[in-house]
């Protein structure tokens, strides 16, 4: 049973797989949650499931004017904010020189500019003690060929997260990054069907519930980074410390993931994406 509401949160990617696992946990922890997403149908389902415990704010994160208006709507409803979770993310798969140039600006807008804009907008009304949690990616440590723009945005977001962690500490606001591997959401299926790297399958895809629990733990503990699973963090860090080895070891690691990728696709052959998923071909949202 949910507690009486005493805290407020904003979650981007609010209709996605991680949010569907996370929101019940937040409600049980006495939060009322504003959900920001471009998926109208998905947001409606969240409202149907959670009623007045959530506020649905449909918004394209690349439209900064609309994003600011959505945040002001949340502020009008909440007054103050206790927790911000930047969880939305998107990638365009394929060789960089072959992707649609418009996708470059869009992916940078969603993955990097939007989180920075949101934090800058809401920081004055986050009360202390408060928390900011950014869902980053293990791709912020080890880059993914075939998702080069995604890797670039996640490297940048990780650097920003670490710097902001130090800046906000004196204000009584913790800033944490959650760095998961591949998450078992419908969008992982879409990305994989479109030929994304087998590196997503060095291990089994993470259940959204596991990622949601770590996000909630990050909000409570406030350490700078959390890795899921920790074993992949070790491998990724080795690649980061020895970048000259990446072109040599990358094919080997990718080969390790091929069988798991094939098994995953076979097990999900009949699965369909949720109705209302507004993701163009070649893109994946968390």
Structural key phrases:
Rossmann fold; alpha/beta; disordered C terminus; two-stranded antiparallel ribbon
Please give the oligomerization state of what you see: single chain
Fraction of residues in H or I helices: 40-55%
Q: N- to C-terminal separation?
A: 28 Å
Q: Strand order, main sheet: write it out.
A: 3-2-1-4-6-7-8
Report the portion of residues in β strands: 15-25%
How many individual helices?
Answer: 9
Gyration radius, to the nearest Å?
18 Å
Within CATH, the superfamily carries the name NAD(P)-binding Rossmann-like Domain
Q: What is the count of β-strands?
A: 9
Q: Unreliable stretches, pLDDT < 50, 5 or more residues?
A: 278-286
- Shape label: globular
Quote the average pLDDT.
Answer: 89
Largest sheet: 7 strands, parallel
Report the CATH architecture. Answer: 3-Layer(aba) Sandwich
State the secondary-structure class.
alpha/beta
**What's the CATH class, please?**
Alpha Beta
Number of domains: 1
